[in-house]
Amino acid sequence: MIQRRFPLSVLILVIGAVPSQGAMTHGLTIPDDTPRAAWLERYTEARQGPEQTDRVVQTVRVGAGGALDLSNISGDVRVTGTNASEITIEAVKRVRHKDADEARRLLQQLRVDITTVGDRVEVRTSYPRRSGSSGERNISARVDYTVSVPIRAAVTIKTISGDAAVTRVDGEVRAETVSGDVSVTGTPNVTSARTVSGDVTARDVVGTANLSLGTVSGTVFASGLQARSLECGSVSGDIRLSGIQVDRLLAKSVSGDIEFGAALARGGRYDFGSHSGDIRIALTSEAGFELDASTFSGSVRSDFPVTLRADGGGRQRTDTTRTIRGSFGDASALLSLKTFSGTVVISRN
């Protein structure tokens, strides 16, 4: 069975249609040269039997663009863009069972189904049917994919237990998992990178119009990113944004901190919110902004000389320890920072 790292109540990410055959365990990622890794291998082998593996490789000729649609249940998926006009799928099937003969039989039944429709390649993992006996329930199976696609291909990845990574793909990219990390690097047309239990990382993404990065239990990282609008969300993790250029930004966390280190765009809108976390903004430019910063039980501090806005009765506000509303410079950008029990800091970088 899958080793879930998240409560069922937060399983809200819609992964799409995937086979409902037995879900399998997701292997732990531990360096192979550590004593702990050796101990884990011995423990797993004693409990579930030695690992049986099989490698499947297939290359499909496609047009200059092409499209890849890959759905998996357990295992990592890594996709890289190349200059070739073909899609190459390398799949490593892994099965454990206390009975070696049964493990080999299950390995044969663990299939990688590849279907081609025009320039579109669909990859699906088909798992062995289980009889329900105690021996069958103790099997562990996964498929790890390493795929190369044309650099202009469209890529869609959906997996349940495993990491998803896409690098150097110029076509539209969507990468989603339930239990695992998601990483997109050098993907200018990524539209969605989301997980339930894991981190989401976006690096060197330049040119995308609207980008959504989200996790329930994990941290969102973004650096070297240029987009028209960016939406980031986490329930119990942090949001860390650095060196990004966006006109519209929405960053929300329930119990995590939010960090932003970048320049504001003239006319841009930036909305940060956390219930119990801190919000720290380090601005790398002197662009003017209209500021609305508040906290209920924390404190607010600004290193910029903000001209305070009068309250409803026309009186100038003097208490700025928990609320600052005013403007700096030409006030061309809108900056909203709100937390309930955290601290708000606006500083120069």
Q: Identify low-pLDDT runs.
A: 1-33
State the domain count: 2
**Helical segment tally?**
3
Based on secondary structure, the structural category is mainly beta
General shape? elongated
Mean pLDDT: 84
Q: CA-to-CA gap between the ends?
A: 48 Å
Biggest beta-sheet profile = 14 strands, mixed
Strand arrangement, major sheet: 5-6-2-8-10-12-14-16-18-20-26-22-25-24
SSE topology:
Blueprint: H1 35-48, E1 51-61, E2 67-71, E3 77-82, E4 86-96, H2 100-109, E5 111-117, E6 120-126, H3 134-137, E7 140-150, E8 154-161, E9 164-167, E10 173-179, E11 182-185, E12 190-194, E13 200-203, E14 206-215, E15 220-223, E16 226-234, E17 239-242, E18 245-253, E19 258-262, E20 269-274, E21 279-283, E22 289-295, E23 300-302, E24 307-308, E25 323-328, E26 333-339, E27 344-348
Parallel strand pairs: 2-6, 2-8, 3-7, 3-9, 8-10, 9-11, 10-12, 11-13, 12-14, 13-15, 14-16, 15-17, 16-18, 17-19, 18-20, 19-21, 20-26, 21-27, 22-26, 23-27
Antiparallel strand pairs: 1-4, 4-7, 5-6, 22-25, 24-25
Note down, in words, how this protein is organized.
With 349 residues, this protein is mainly beta. Helix content is 8%, strand content 49%. It is built from three helices and 27 strands. A hairpin with a 2-residue loop joins strand 5 and strand 6 (120-126). The protein is elongated, with a radius of gyration of 24 Å.
Features:
3 helices; mainly beta; elongated; 13-stranded mixed β-sheet; 14-stranded mixed β-sheet
